[in-house]
Amino acid sequence: MGALEGYDARRIRTLLMPVAQNGICGPDSAPLLDVGTQQYLKFFEEEILGNLVLSGGATVRVFEGAYGAGKTHLLKLVENLGHQYDCAVVYAQLNNHALQIEDWRAVTAYILTNLEMDIEGQRARSLPAILARLGNCGKGDLNRLREAPAPHASFKTAMEIMADVSKRKRVKMAPLELFLSGEKVRVGDLREAGIQGVKNPLSARNCEQVLHTALAGLHALTGSAILLLFDETDRAFAKYDTRRVHIAANLMRRFIDSCMSGELPGTVAVFAVLQDFVQTCGLAYPALGQRLHTDGLDGAAASWRTPVLPLERVNELEDEEDFLDAAVGRCSEILSHVGRDGERCRAILKQIGEAAVESQAGSGYRRTLMKALALRTLQLMQN
After folding, report:
1. Are 224 and 238 part of one and the same domain?
2. H helix runs in 37-91, sequence order
3. Are residues 178 and 322 in the same domain?
4. Which one-letter DSSP state was computed for residue 314?
5. Among 313, 337, 355, where does a domain finish?
6. Torsion angle in degrees (nearest 10) through CA of 215, 213, 219, 255
7. Could you list the residue range(s) of the whole structural domain that residue 218 is in?
8. Could you tell me if 247 and 327 lie in one domain?
9. pLDDT tens by residue, 153-199
10. Which residues fall within 8 angstroms of residue 268, CB to CB, at 6 or more apart?
């Protein structure tokens, strides 16, 4: 089967092991195990990436679903697709512990240090590493970077120095790398390193200006799309009090406005959230609900072009039994691919899958199902 081309038994085992442990796919394992989302991914590839953001447009998408319904899986598929197109991609988990959306300075710093981009066959991680790699490979249009919108002019100057090999050779790299990673760097330390015209490091006050400058500058330099993938992992928004919800919703509204107004060219931000997120934020901050146009989107009238999309509408296998059969079929194909009798194993996998589905209520069965099937597939591969 075409979907399994390039996967040998060793690689399949490596990809299945973390799924068997927690039911969560990575960007490499998601295509291996995916069933039912091919048509949506084709839409995302052609209309969102090809026709919109790669042409300099920007947009926001919000996927809503129950815990365990496959939100992270979908984001990983989008992440994999982004790397296929050599986009700059960052995946961020939003929760009540490490990274919270109302702390936009921390979110910006996370994006600066975790952006990934494939350049000349190598993956660079962090904004300064991407800029340096582009410069070393002779990639990137420095003139377009200089002309890019820059609400934080000093940050764009720092980006230009890092992406220009001739300028980079005349300065000490460490302070510049720290500045572009969102660290606090004193002007005196920058000047001692030979870096002129760079000041005002990332702070709570200027974080939006820094983010806009970084993303607009990177798109101008490369012409590539930028994918920002935000995953709500533990009911973070449902736990907020009214003030914190209002802060989070306001920040998200401003972020959406930046995409829609063209301040973030070439950017698509994708939020995967639990079912009550949009309603909760909309009640606390009606302007967000207006931006997302959530009114009247219930039922079959909602299409893939709407900004808020229930997760079950992404997957063409909405029926529980259909999804189970397809997932069992995929695992059976994997076993056949590595030399096992996949058809003989199908009944075993079906029994395991049915038990996993029965143990969960509602639409949140998919993570539990894939965890059980991945574990049993590994065991059958070893027998």
Report:
1. yes
2. 38-43, 71-84
3. no
4. T
5. 313
6. 40
7. 36-313
8. no
9. 999 999 999 999 999 999 999 999 999 999 999 999 999 999 999 99
10. 48, 49, 52, 53, 58, 59, 60, 61, 225, 226, 227, 228, 259
- Name residue, tokens 């959230």: 273
Report helix, strand and coil shares of the chain as percent, to nearest 5.
55, 10, 35
Comparing CA positions, the residue from 90, 60, 72 lying closest to residue 309 is: 60
Of the residues 287, 313, 339, which one is the last residue of a structural domain? Answer: 313
Q: Are residues 102 and 247 in the same domain?
A: yes
Contacts of 25 by beta carbon, 8 Å cutoff, 6+ apart: 19, 32, 33, 34, 72, 73, 76, 370
Number of alpha helices (DSSP H) and beta strands (DSSP E) in the chain: 18, 7
Considering the domain architecture, whether residues 222 and 277 belong to the same structural domain is answered as: yes
Q: Are residues 373 and 338 in the same domain?
A: yes
Residue 255, judged by CB atoms within 10 A of its CB (0-12, 13-18, 19+), counts as buried
**CB neighbour list of residue 194: distance below 8 Å, 6 or more residues apart:** 170, 171, 172
Element (H, E) at 49: none
Q: How far does the chain reach from its first CA to its final CA, in angstroms?
A: 23
Global pTM reads 0.89
* 55-105 tens-digit pLDDT: 889 998 989 888 888 888 999 999 999 999 999 999 998 876 678 777 889
Same-domain pairing of 102 and 206: yes
- Contacts by residues 202-208 (CB-CB < 8 Å, ≥ 24 positions apart): 202/105, 202/108, 202/109, 202/112, 203/105, 204/104, 204/105, 206/152, 207/104, 207/105, 207/107, 207/108, 208/104, 208/108, 208/151, 208/254, 208/258
**What is the helix (H) or strand (E) element at residue 225, kind and residue range?**
none
Hey, CA dihedral for 7, 11, 13, 17, is it positive or negative?
negative
Number of independent structural domains in the chain: 2
The vertex-282 CA angle with 216 and 285, nearest 5°, equals: 75
**Is residue 281 located within the same domain as residue 376?**
no
